[in-house]
Fold these 2 entries.
Entry 1:
Amino acid sequence: YVFYHRQTGLNEFARQAMVAPVEVSVEEGPGGQVNISEGEYTSEGFALNGLNPLERHSAGIACWYTGPKAAVHEWPDNTFYGSYVAASYDKDVDSSPVVNNADGSIVGYKYFNFTDVQANTLLLNLVPEGIDGTVSVWADSPWKSKGGLLLGELKLTADMQQTPTEQAVALPALADLTGKHAVFLTFASDTKEKSLCTLHDFVFRSSK
C-alpha cells in the first residue's frame, strides 16, 4: 500500500509528491474497521530507496523547516520566524526557493541514499542577503545530542554580492556514510530575525 500526497504551488509547479509505505489492517465482523498507519513525511517522492545525491534538487522539496520560534497562522496571513518554502515557483532559477533562513532555522531533507556515492562536496545555489552567518550541514539529525553528524560548514559574509551564486561546502565526513540518511541545514548568525540567504537548489559532488 502507498500513501500519496501532492502539494502544488503557483504557476502550475508541483512542489513535491510525497510517497510513503503504510500498514493497513482490517478488523472483520460487526463494528469492524480498516486501520491505516500514518506515512512518514519525506522529500523522496517515488524514490523510496532514497534520493540520488548526485542529482540536483530544488530546495523546495524540504520536508522539515523550522525557525527559532513557532510560526503564527492567523487567517488570512501567516507569520514565519524562520525558514519556509516560498509560495511561488521561481522561473528565473528554475526552483522553488526556501526563504527567511534566519538564525535558529533548520531545513531538512529525508532521505538521500549515499551507497556507492563518491561525493565530498555540497554545492548550494543561493542568494546571500547581506549578513554574517554560518550554514551547517548535518546528517541524520540537526543536533549532535540526538545523533547528528556535522558534515561541514559554509561561512556567509555581509559583503557578499546579493546575487545568485553557487557555494561549495567541503564535506570530508561524507565518505563515512552509506545507505539512507537525512540531511539538515542549520543557520546561525549574531544578527537575529534576518535571513542569511535564499536557498534555490543543491547537489552533491566530488571535488576530485
Note: Residues 38 and 48 are 16 Å apart (CA to CA).
Entry 2:
Amino acid sequence: MSEGLIELTGANFVAETAQGVTLVDFWAPWCGPCRMQTPILERLAPKVAGKARIGKVNVDEEQAIAIQYNVRNIPTLLLIKDGQVVQQMVGLQQEAKLQQLIENA
C-alpha cells in the first residue's frame, strides 16, 4: 500500500474507522479512474495527518465490505466519522474538495 494510505480489509475495517475521521476509497486495480484517484490520495494523506486517516478497500478482494456499504460503482469514497458514514462520493474526486470535506468533518 502507498505511503500514508491504510489497506482496509474485513479484519481491520471496523477498528480503523470506529474513531475519528477516515476517508475510505473503494477501488480495483483494473479501474482507470481508481488509478487516477490514488496519487491524489497520496498527496492528501500528509496534509490531513493528525486530522484523518485515508484507507483503501480493494473491492475485488473485499466484496463483503463493498456490499455492506452499497458500493455499486468505483471509485466510491466514503467519509466516515466515528464509525458512521457522513458523506459518499462516486467518481474521481479532486484533492481540494476532499481536503475541505475532511476539514469540515
Note: The chain has a mean pLDDT of 96.
